[in-house]
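Fill in residues.
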């Protein structure tokens, strides 16, 4: 793994390199995605089933697109009972964490008859996209469905690709049922996003679409934003480890590889103040990679977006980490809590040598749907807030309005909005 001195040039080049991974850099796919969206919008079920046949090799119709209770029961029989129990434990942790995020309506009244407040309302219908195809991601099911459930969303519908036999991965189905998804549709790709955005004869229109996916799914979510809300446009996975000489190089290497194995565009970066640690981590990465089944993917990921950066001091390292704004940030230093207080930009922060990134992916409770590609500077992890909306509440008595109504009139007239001013004036006509 390449080892570089952290300088202004290396930091700038690194940031430019990482930005190439953004879905915004893949405009060559946008025409294809837009065609799919328009066809689904115009032709409904016919287009969805046609694309499912073309891309997934499955023959679906209005009777088979929806997963049945019998198929869910069959999934439970096919999934290892131990995995079901593990998912239940994970589910309990995720629910408990997100319960603490719940917001409630509030009202503040004054003696003069003014009442101000905020009304919190859960979204009526949410669509959850779960990737399928080559791999199954039951953890993504739990992380996307449970916050919506905790928020009180009226109906949670899920879309995930099926195989050529028309069946969905059993672990994905079991996770969806455990988490409380109301309906599961056997469709994937941009056509699933379009179906959720506009509705078809068989698939309901939703108010918001959440969940990760490939470049076609990401671009489709971007294209339908405005017709529906979305969580974010997810980019490839990434990890940044901040470490000093106290870190265990074997742990650091293992944690970097936990993200590099996702795909060739994944990013794994170590920033350390120790040249010795940098060399040791590089050696451990070579040893691990030689034995891991996803060796080819890991090597391409590290060749493209893997870096070990040696900083002059920890303040310089922290500045670089804040600029990169990584999806996952591990702090493996002698005093990780002190360093954490200096971090401004990160999706999820893992403190200490026993809080490795997969703990967050699967079990701890905080959401693993996180901002990528530097968007942690202004985005947050998926949470209960993503599934509610807020309405402002305003009520004034005549006694409260009278002392200030001329102020409002003056403000409105200064903007030449005379009808606004009149709306206030008429209430005090003699």
């Amino acid at each position: 793994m390449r080892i570089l001195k952290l300088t202004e040039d290396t930091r700038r080049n690194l940031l430019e390199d990482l930005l190439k991974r953004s879905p915004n850099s893949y405009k060559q796919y946008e025409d294809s995605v837009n065609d799919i969206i328009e066809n689904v919008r115009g032709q409904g079920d016919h287009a969805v089933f046609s694309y499912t046949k073309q891309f997934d090799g499955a023959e679906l119709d209005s009777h088979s697109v929806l997963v049945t209770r019998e198929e869910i029961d069959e999934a439970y029989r096919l999934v290892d009972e131990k995995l079901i129990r593990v998912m239940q434990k994970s589910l309990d942790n995720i629910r408990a964490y997100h319960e603490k995020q719940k917001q409630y309506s509030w009202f503040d009244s004054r003696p003069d008859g003014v009442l101000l407040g905020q009304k919190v309302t859960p979204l009526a219908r949410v669509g959850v996209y779960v990737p399928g195809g080559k791999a199954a991601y039951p953890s993504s099911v739990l992380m996307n469905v449970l916050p919506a459930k905790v928020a009180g969303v009226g109906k949670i519908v899920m879309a995930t690709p099926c195989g050529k036999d028309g069946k969905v991965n059993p672990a994905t189905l079991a996770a969806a049922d455990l988490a409380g998804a109301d309906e599961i549709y056997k469709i994937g790709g941009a056509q699933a996003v379009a179906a959720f955005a506009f509705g078809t004869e068989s698939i309901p229109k939703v108010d918001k679409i959440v969940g990760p996916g490939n470049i076609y799914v990401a671009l489709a979510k971007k294209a339908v934003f405005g017709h529906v809300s979305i969580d974010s446009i997810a980019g490839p996975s990434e990890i940044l480890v901040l470490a000093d000489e106290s870190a265990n190089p074997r742990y650091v290497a293992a944690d970097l590889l936990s993200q590099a194995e996702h795909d060739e565009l994944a990013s794994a970066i170590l920033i350390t103040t120790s040249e010795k640690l940098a060399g040791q981590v590089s050696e451990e990465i070579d040893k691990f990679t030689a034995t891991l089944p996803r060796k080819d993917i890991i090597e391409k990921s590290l060749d493209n977006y893997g870096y070990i950066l040696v900083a002059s001091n920890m303040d310089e390292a922290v500045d670089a980490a804040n600029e990169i704004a990584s999806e996952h940030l591990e702090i493996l230093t002698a005093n990780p809590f002190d360093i954490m207080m200096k971090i401004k930009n990160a999706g999820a922060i893992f403190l200490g040598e026993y809080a490795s990134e997969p703990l967050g992916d699967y079990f701890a409770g905080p959401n693993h749907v996180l901002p990528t590609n530097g968007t942690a500077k202004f985005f947050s992890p998926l949470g209960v807030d993503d599934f509610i909306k807020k309405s402002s509440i305003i009520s004034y008595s005549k006694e409260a309005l009278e002392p200030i109504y001329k102020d409002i009139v003056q403000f409105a007239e200064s903007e030449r909005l005379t009808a606004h001013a009149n709306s206030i004036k008429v209430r005090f006509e003699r």
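The chain is about 45% helix and 15% strand.
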